[in-house]
Write a structure and sequence with these properties.
- The chain has one helix spanning 29-47, and strands at residues 72-81, 88-96, 102-112, 118-125, 127-129, 136-138, 149-156, 169-177.
- It is mainly β.
- The strands form 2 sheets. A 5-stranded antiparallel sheet has the order 1-2-7-5-6, with no helix packed on it. It has a 3-stranded antiparallel sheet with strand order 4-3-8, with no helix packed on it.
- The chain starts with 28 loop residues before the first helix and ends with a strand.
């Protein structure tokens, strides 16, 4: 059926033709967010600390001379029993033969029995004796300078009961000091 262009318009409600309006393109936020996250990740990776560079250890020429047990000399050693308990004090003069200040001396005492056999061993640190001969302080507080002699006390808290009460054999096992 053909329509006549001059026919009267149909009656009743009519739909208006829709106009096709092109949509505006939205701003590409997802793309911007991905780029920003990538830049942030790149900045974090660039600023992260790297592993430390391997430092070469000092050569033998750079290590300061260290004190040795041969650097110290004990003389005028006297036994003095402690008034209480089974402790033993040895009073001695300590001479520093080295070129560094001595800040610590560790001494091992080998106690002998009646037949000369070793019945016990004890290790202690030397302490500087004060002028009143009653007080003693650590060598780190009062170091012994090179070519200097100072009175020291070696306190052994427990000696073996089988000890023959003779002077124990003393061995300097460790010496600590400062730079020259």
């Amino acid at each position: 059926m053909a329509t006549n262009p001059q026919s009267p318009p149909p009656r009743g409600p009519q739909l208006a033709p829709r106009m096709h309006v092109p949509r505006k393109k939205q701003f590409p936020w997802p793309v911007v967010a991905l780029i920003a996250a990538g830049l942030l990740l790149l900045a974090i990776v660039a600023k992260m600390p790297t592993t430390p560079k391997k430092v070469q250890p000092p050569s033998a020429a750079q290590i300061p001379p260290q004190p040795t047990p041969g650097q110290v000399q004990l003389s005028s050693v006297q036994l003095t029993p402690s008034p209480v308990g089974d402790a033993l004090n040895l009073q001695a003069m300590l001479h520093n033969n080295g070129s560094t200040e001595i800040t610590g001396v560790e001494v091992q005492a080998n106690f002998k029995g009646a037949n000369g056999q070793n019945v016990g061993t004890e290790v202690t640190k030397a302490q500087i004796v004060g002028k009143d001969n009653a007080t003693a302080q650590d060598l780190t507080i009062s170091p012994i300078k090179p070519n200097e002699t100072a009175p020291v006390r070696l306190r052994f808290d427990h000696y073996p009961s089988a000890w023959n009460k003779q002077m124990p054999e003393l061995v300097v096992t460790q010496v600590t000091g400062t730079k020259p």
